Amino acid sequence: MDSLTHIVLGACIGEALLDKNAGRKAILWGALAQSVPDIDFIAGMWMPVSTELLAHRGITHSFLFAGFISFFLALVAARWHKAEPISLKKWFWFFLIEIGCHLLLDAMNNYGIGWFEPFSDRRISFNVIYVADPLFTIVPLIAFGFLLFLKSDHRHRLKWARMGITASAIYMIFALWNKYKIEHTVLDSVSKNYPGTLTHFTTPTLLNNLLWFVVIEDSLGYQVGYKSVFDKKKDLALHYFPKNETYLRPVADHEEVMELKKFSQGLYTVEQWKDTLVFNDLRFGQINGWYKPESRFAFHYYLSHPQENELIVQRGRFAGIDRESIRVMWKRIIND
After folding, report:
1. 277 touches 308 (CB < 8 A)
2. Is the dihedral of CA 29, 35, 40, 46 positive or negative?
3. Do 158 and 57 fall into the same domain?
4. What is the pTM assigned to this prediction?
5. Which domain holds residue 300?
6. Would residue 27 count as lying in a domain?
7. pLDDT for position 189
8. Of the candidates 243, 300, 282, which has an alpha carbon nearest to the alpha carbon of residue 49?
9. In this predicted model, what pLDDT tens digit does every residue of 275-301 receive, in sequence order?
């Protein structure tokens, strides 16, 4: 999830778990603990972009790291709060729950997370919720605001913290149900209409959980389209993109290309834009694709000009988003 979500939800969990024993510092410890796994961005500042993509959400998002860093932070917190009646064991479980929550939330996105590193480089991604979903974050954010300004002994602090946690949990259940519905519909359509399909992929679209991006792979490329949770018809309106694997033959042994293939989990296309060879990771969807089916993919990496690959994951994410595009998106969601 995005950093804001981790901070505000972490603060709510901190207040709920530590309550008055740590005073107002509970929300600060909670926000800090939820943010710890993302320290990998520091190392990424000195890495090539393709290497950084794999390093992010890698070892610092593993179960092994969660255990070690929770124990270290527990030692620090217990020493800092010697005056409070909080045991080292409670501090350890507090940090483990906070960091475990971070790892679980990140696995619900489409980026991929290295739960089992360094023993396995397999990336986990359940593709249940968009990386930044306002409806998931709004209640914990409001609760965080109250926790910041209410006095440490105010009788409603714990209620606000629980409200933030409960609202997020309910929304996640809603997202899981949507994922189940979309998967069931897509699987049914694939089995009937696309024999010989290799795999398929579904993930929520920009800032919502109602319109989903669908990818269906065959031996030569991908059928790409959109599905609303309110759609009654099981048929999919799809646009075809060839994979163009042959474009990579001259550079197939380059480390950069191998890292991009690994990062994309095999869901990629290659295109030639004038003098530039472009690698697209389909998992991050299209730029405005529900409005213009032929739109470019949000993740496009310039193989010919690697120095231009800044903000690679979200490059152009909001390009073309205007009133008309939003109107079309809303009509597509409500199946109008």
Report:
1. no
2. negative
3. yes
4. 0.92
5. 194-336
6. yes
7. 84
8. 300
9. 889 999 999 999 999 999 999 999 888
Backbone angles phi, psi at 298, to 5 degrees: -65, -35
The residue out of 175, 202, 232 marking a domain boundary is 175
Which segments of the chain does DSSP mark as H helices, in order? 3-18, 25-35, 40-44, 49-55, 63-80, 88-107, 134-149, 157-193, 255-264, 323-333
Q: Tens digit of pLDDT for each residue in 45-102?
A: 778 888 888 899 999 999 999 999 999 999 999 998 887 888 999 999 999 999 999 9
**Residues β-bridged to residue 222:** 217, 241
Mean pLDDT taken over the chain:
91
**Claim to verify: residue 15 and residue 50 sit in the same structural domain:** yes
Please write the tens of the pLDDT for every residue from 195-216: 766 789 999 999 999 999 999 9
- Reported confidence tier of residue 104, pLDDT bands at 50, 70, 90: very high
Is 154 found in the same domain as 8? Answer: yes
For residues 147 and 256, membership in a common domain is answered with no
Task: Judge if 232 and 307 occupy the same domain.
Answer: yes
CA angle 83, 85, 87 (to 5 degrees): 110
pLDDT at 217 over 70: yes
DSSP string, 13-77: HHHHHHGGGSTTHHHHHHHHHHHGGGGHHHHHTTS-HHHHHHHTTSGGGSHHHHHHHHHHHHHHH
SS3 of residue 86 by DSSP:
coil
163 and 203 inside one domain = no
In the chain, how many domains are there? 2
